[in-house]
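ok trying again, last paste got cut off:
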Amino acid sequence: MYVILNAAMSIDGKITTRKNDSSISSNIDWVRVHKLRSTVDGIVIGISTVLKDDPMLNVRYAKMVKNPARIMRSSKKIQTFVAVTHDASLKKIKEIEKKGAKVLVIGREKVNIINLFQHLENLGLKKVLVEGGGEINWSILKSGLVNELIVTIAPIVIGGRDAKTLVEGEGISYIHNAIRMKLVKSIIQDNKEIVLIYRLR
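nice, full thing came through this time. structure:
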């Protein structure tokens, strides 16, 4: 499976404000994102993004053959998977399935991200886009699942210790353990946003 992590952030690395406003991407960048969506088999987001943004995750600004499967909230129009742990109640699982989603039970205390991606690959998803928040971004990066990282840097500064950053989670203790990336391409968009494309070293 080929995994792409895509995100937009401020110059100071924030993906939301302290009030959870995440409207950082411009219309120019949204066109790029929707073109990218049209090339993948599925889109993965975390529960925090689901609850905060309730996103459609479909393709609207690009020619496409089909909408990618969504690995998140339920929908009858777009194939949707919801990953839960073994602690999820049978009642909650049935509620999700009633809304048209397929439930994947993976992991004990939290969803096992490696097993989830292996399961998605077994279901035929060969190219997956991650549009997550800081927690899921950390999970897939530390697991070595990311092949490509695309970051749009908007020419703004947000600040705030409670504002979410691109990668959160536990993080590393020492720089020599950092996840190394190689810059393969940079693009300056018309509105002066910078798109940086990295690959895992």
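cool. The first strand starts at residue 2 and ends at 9. The chain has a mean pLDDT of 85.
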